[in-house]
């Protein structure tokens, strides 16, 4: 579990740096939020995972073409969280 919290720390640092130097709808910010969502999903923090996946999705929908594979990946990740969340 320690490795997940270390990963969160690095991903949050990434968001902070990107946030200072990139526009708020830059795809790299979307990727960072997607990664944070993945870690929260692994930790069983489903609501936090969905929050970050939603942030990622908003950014990607603004900055990428509608059929971009990265958007599809975020939708898939959100679906996986809902699958796991319903199993509780």
Automatic annotation (TrEMBL):
<protein>
    <recommendedName>
        <fullName>Kinesin light chain</fullName>
    </recommendedName>
</protein>
<keyword id="KW-0677">Repeat</keyword>
<dbReference type="Pfam" id="PF13424">
    <property type="entry name" value="TPR_12"/>
</dbReference>
<dbReference type="InterPro" id="IPR011990">
    <property type="entry name" value="TPR-like_helical_dom_sf"/>
</dbReference>
<keyword id="KW-0802">TPR repeat</keyword>
């Amino acid at each position: 579990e320690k490795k997940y919290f270390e990963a969160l720390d690095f991903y949050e640092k990434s968001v902070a740096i990107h946030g200072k130097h990139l526009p708020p709808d830059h795809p790299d910010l979307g990727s960072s939020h997607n990664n944070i969502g993945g870690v929260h999903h692994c930790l069983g923090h489903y609501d936090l995972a969905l929050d970050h996946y939603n942030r990622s999705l908003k950014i990607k929908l603004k900055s990428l073409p509608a059929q971009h594979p990265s958007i599809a990946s975020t939708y898939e990740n959100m679906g996986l969280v809902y699958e796991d969340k319903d199993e509780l």
